[in-house]
Amino acid sequence: MKKHCLAVDIGASSGRLMLGCLENRQLELKEIYRFENQMIQLDGQYCWDIDRLFAEIKTGISRCVQAGVQPDSIGIDTWAVDFVLLDEQDRLLTKAVAYRDARTDGMMEKVFRRIPKEALYAKTGIQFLKFNTIYQLYSLKQSEPETLEKAAAFLMIPDYLHFLLTGKKVNEYTNATSTQLVNAKEKNWDEAILAELGISRSMFQQIAPPKTILGNLTAELVKEFGSDMQVVLPATHDTGSAVAAVPDHGETIYLSSGTWSLIGVESAEPNSTAKALDYNYTNEGGIDYRYRFLKNIMGLWMIQEVKRNYHDHYSFSELVDLAREASDYSAIVNVNDDRFLNPVSMVAEIQDCCRETDQPVPTSPGEVAKCVYDSLAVSYQQAVEEIEDILGKTYAKINVIGGGCQNEMLNQLIADVTNKEVNAGPVEATAIGNIVAQLMALGEMNDIEEARAIVQKSFAIKKYFPRQKMN
Ligand code: ADP
Ligand code: LRH
């Protein structure tokens, strides 16, 4: 009997339920349901609409069952770092505050006063992003210490959604590492860091690795859907699932291209050398305790915001066309500047930045979009140089995965700027990586090597080669 696995993959911009089915060593993927995701404002804070997200998941499951498909298993991945706290009765004590909320402003520096940056990096191997969970929790400790005291459970977003499905509470490993609270060697919560920050160890759950079979749906949900299925942990950090599905990872740099651009390589050991710290590279936990040595780049969030600023008048592909038409325009902004993390208006912020750096100010949507794509490509090139410098080796190819790999202009630009072959696809790498973890847990695939070989065979990859530079 063929197994059917349902992947729930929720990114910061959209969520989808994708059904995977393995037949004759070929993986087939079918979209069941798709919905938008975006931050909402609650009591002046940027948050996720967590109730709606769970309702969307339920809608997707119902559609799957109504279409006559009975999934054997389901697993959820989302963006990293964000969490909720539950009380003794498993009721929500907090909103699902989003990482772009300003609550972490200044928190990194406060934490460094208690734990030096170098010590934190040596223990966790995690890059310094102002919104990491550690700084979110420290902010909560300053503003609402009583909430932290009452907390009985700390669950990251996918952990909470898995809890709603099963009634079981665990902290999945790949996502837990993004908190900057997990000891990279011990692969467990770092008690010394927690103690130093005055954050209680007791609310943290047991860390469970991907491929753990969490259990079945709650009786209530079985009744609602008229069917049961196993809940299996994928790499619940979306980037962990995406990288699990990078077909040819050996000599390839991956670029997971969605709301964020995550650029790096997979590695057997964490690299927390002075150089890696200096360039701010991370060692996030992956499937089978492999590490994702990578850096966050602001990513297509910038174009999502530009699109929103133009009242969604243009689609993503229209913005690409307009950028192409604006070929005479050129300006580069530092995409990783915090000013682009959550500006009031992305278009105005880009224009201000160009003005301040004495570059031509983009006025049309095409010019603004071109500035974003060109600036992203330059930042990818810088990251490639950094990776090659830290690791002392060169890479022949870049494998772009995720929604952004549909941008043909950007793919070609990356090939030209980096002078490397670019392989684009699969678009739904994250959902595929999620499904692959479930299939391994169900005994349908032996290991990640086999899984990657099947992914390579099953999905079309488009190649781009650097164009000759014209003098
Ligand atoms: P996330 O999972 O972080 O929400 P996705 O992997 O879904 O993000 O990627 C979303 C991005 O993909 C969008 O911001 C957009 O730039 C890009 N994208 C989606 N569709 C297209 C398209 N047709 N052409 C070009 N780019 C696209
Ligand atoms: C990408 C991602 C990334 C994290 C960020 C918060 O969706 O999970 O890996 O750094 O969101």
TrEMBL record:
<dbReference type="GO" id="GO:0008993">
    <property type="term" value="F:rhamnulokinase activity"/>
</dbReference>
<feature type="disulfide bond">
    <location>
        <begin position="354"/>
        <end position="371"/>
    </location>
</feature>
<keyword id="KW-1015">Disulfide bond</keyword>
<feature type="domain" description="Carbohydrate kinase FGGY N-terminal">
    <location>
        <begin position="6"/>
        <end position="242"/>
    </location>
</feature>
<dbReference type="InterPro" id="IPR018484">
    <property type="entry name" value="FGGY_N"/>
</dbReference>
<dbReference type="Pfam" id="PF00370">
    <property type="entry name" value="FGGY_N"/>
</dbReference>
<feature type="binding site">
    <location>
        <begin position="237"/>
        <end position="239"/>
    </location>
    <ligand>
        <name>substrate</name>
    </ligand>
</feature>
<keyword id="KW-0067">ATP-binding</keyword>
<dbReference type="InterPro" id="IPR043129">
    <property type="entry name" value="ATPase_NBD"/>
</dbReference>
<feature type="binding site">
    <location>
        <position position="403"/>
    </location>
    <ligand>
        <name>ATP</name>
    </ligand>
</feature>
<dbReference type="GO" id="GO:0005524">
    <property type="term" value="F:ATP binding"/>
</dbReference>
<dbReference type="GO" id="GO:0019301">
    <property type="term" value="P:rhamnose catabolic process"/>
</dbReference>
<comment type="function">
    <text>Involved in the catabolism of L-rhamnose (6-deoxy-L-mannose). Catalyzes the transfer of the gamma-phosphate group from ATP to the 1-hydroxyl group of L-rhamnulose to yield L-rhamnulose 1-phosphate.</text>
</comment>
<feature type="binding site">
    <location>
        <position position="296"/>
    </location>
    <ligand>
        <name>substrate</name>
    </ligand>
</feature>
<keyword id="KW-0460">Magnesium</keyword>
<feature type="binding site">
    <location>
        <begin position="12"/>
        <end position="16"/>
    </location>
    <ligand>
        <name>ATP</name>
    </ligand>
</feature>
<comment type="similarity">
    <text>Belongs to the rhamnulokinase family.</text>
</comment>
<feature type="binding site">
    <location>
        <position position="304"/>
    </location>
    <ligand>
        <name>ATP</name>
    </ligand>
</feature>
<dbReference type="Pfam" id="PF02782">
    <property type="entry name" value="FGGY_C"/>
</dbReference>
<keyword id="KW-0418">Kinase</keyword>
<feature type="binding site">
    <location>
        <position position="80"/>
    </location>
    <ligand>
        <name>substrate</name>
    </ligand>
</feature>
<feature type="domain" description="Carbohydrate kinase FGGY C-terminal">
    <location>
        <begin position="254"/>
        <end position="442"/>
    </location>
</feature>
<dbReference type="InterPro" id="IPR050406">
    <property type="entry name" value="FGGY_Carb_Kinase"/>
</dbReference>
<dbReference type="InterPro" id="IPR000577">
    <property type="entry name" value="Carb_kinase_FGGY"/>
</dbReference>
<feature type="active site" description="Proton acceptor">
    <location>
        <position position="238"/>
    </location>
</feature>
<comment type="similarity">
    <text>Belongs to the FGGY kinase family.</text>
</comment>
<comment type="pathway">
    <text>Carbohydrate degradation; L-rhamnose degradation; glycerone phosphate from L-rhamnose: step 2/3.</text>
</comment>
<dbReference type="InterPro" id="IPR018485">
    <property type="entry name" value="FGGY_C"/>
</dbReference>
<keyword id="KW-0684">Rhamnose metabolism</keyword>
<protein>
    <recommendedName>
        <fullName>Rhamnulokinase</fullName>
        <ecNumber>2.7.1.5</ecNumber>
    </recommendedName>
</protein>
<feature type="binding site">
    <location>
        <position position="259"/>
    </location>
    <ligand>
        <name>ATP</name>
    </ligand>
</feature>
<keyword id="KW-0808">Transferase</keyword>
<keyword id="KW-0547">Nucleotide-binding</keyword>
<dbReference type="InterPro" id="IPR013449">
    <property type="entry name" value="Rhamnulokinase"/>
</dbReference>
